[in-house]
Specification:
With about 350 residues, the protein is α/β, with parallel strands linked by helices. It has helices at about 15-25, 40-50, 55-65, 75-85, 100-115, 130-140, 165-180, 265-270, 285-300, 310-325; strands at about 5-10, 30-35, 50-55, 65-70, 90-95, 120, 145-155, 185-195, 205-210, 215-220, 225-235, 240-245, 250-255, 275-280, 330. The longest helix is centred in the last third of the chain and has 20 residues, at about 310-325. It starts with a strand and ends in an 11-residue tail after the last strand. The relative contact order is 0.15.
């Protein structure tokens, strides 16, 4: 039996998926959708047998949903998210959490003030391949992590108008790099370019430095005709490879990765090719796993899997990348917490 009344604000391509998943989950019951386009809201409401609104405040007051998905343009995350939180709803806001760090902190402050949960939709954490990889890394199977490399290439998505690839796409990979290593990113450097996009960067190539010395690489664009979604994690034991498009996880073993206590011996030992493993995974829709985890955390009274602070941290690194791209200099990352001013 559904326990939580759910609503979706913003019913573009991603919002429509949120509505569908709420209909499918046993923990939730879709009661309403809202969008500035009456035609879009009404067609989706008719499809799912729920009420449709163009007035967000009216929807919140009338339907009194327990949880709300905020799936509107980034520049509206603060205003819409604040409305939903102050109406007494728990909120999941699509990444990035907000357009600026100050706006992100305002959302976090509001959630704390009204005693409601705020989750950020960093959906990549819920990819079955990433969840399996996280378990292997936490079990120490890799040993020390040396490098995390992300490639996220593809054509320009017509849904994006208000941000460039760093805020729209790199936030995925910045969050995953922090999540997998357990280490904050302390310094960034990148080169950006605007080739086809009218107002924002559509290409970024950058390096990341984590607190423990792990190196990160990102290669992201909206210029490639075919999609590439790939992550590699290289370390003492070998290399993990994630193919996001197929939800596959591979491990390429370094057969010489034995414990070497004598550092000088380690210098000459090097690496060699070992066995390759393709892990059997139970494939699933990441959005369904994400919204299910959000609902379960509310029903169980446990912390949401991706907090507002997690979203703010990813945005902070993204903003540092933008500054680096503009200044052509390395930028040290200064993280923000609620109650203080950001850079």
């Amino acid at each position: 039996m559904a326990d939580l009344k759910a609503a979706v604000i913003g019913v573009g391509s991603m919002g429509r998926n949120h509505a569908r998943v709420y209909r499918e989950l046993p923990e939730t019951h879709l009661v309403a959708v809202a969008d500035e386009s009456a035609a879009q809201a009404e067609s989706l409401g008719e499809l799912h047998g729920c009420h449709a609104y163009t007035d967000i405040s009216a929807m919140l007051a009338t339907e009194k949903p327990d949880i709300v998905s905020v799936v509107v343009p980034t520049t509206a995350h603060l205003s819409v998210g604040t409305l939903a939180l102050e109406a007494g709803c728990h909120v999941i806001v699509e990444k990035p959490i907000a357009a600026t760090e100050a706006e992100a902190m305002s959302l976090i402050e509001t959630a704390r003030r009204v005693g409601r949960q705020l989750m950020v939709g960093h959906i990549v954490r819920f990819d079955p391949a990433i969840q399996t990889l996280t378990g292997h890394l936490q079990d120490g199977e890799m040993g020390r992590i040396y490098q995390v490399k992300s490639r996220r290439l593809g054509p320009f998505p017509n849904r994006i108008r208000d941000v460039g690839v760093i805020v729209d796409l790199a936030t995925h990979d910045l969050d995953i790099a922090r999540h997998l290593t357990g280490q904050p990113i302390t310094r960034v450097y990148c080169e950006i370019a605007r080739r086809l996009h009218a107002g924002h960067e559509d290409m970024v190539v950058g390096t990341l430095r984590h607190a423990d010395g792990t190196v990160g690489l990102i290669d992201i664009n909206w210029l490639t005709p075919s999609k590439v979604r790939e992550l590699t994690v290289t370390g003492e034991g070998g290399m993990f490879l994630v193919d996001y498009l197929t939800q596959d996880l591979y491990f390429f073993e370094n057969s010489d990765a034995e414990a070497v206590e004598w550092d000088r011996m380690a210098l000459i030992k090097g690496v060699s090719e070992g066995k390759m493993i393709r892990y059997p995974l139970r494939r699933a829709e990441p959005l369904k796993l994400e919204l299910e985890a959000f609902a379960r955390s509310l029903l169980d009274g446990t912390p949401v899997p991706v907090s507002g602070q997690d979203g703010l941290d990813a945005l902070t690194v993204a903003m540092a990348l933008l500054r680096s791209g503009e200044t052509h200099e390395p930028v040290s990352v200064r993280y923000c917490t609620v109650g203080e001013r950001c850079n």
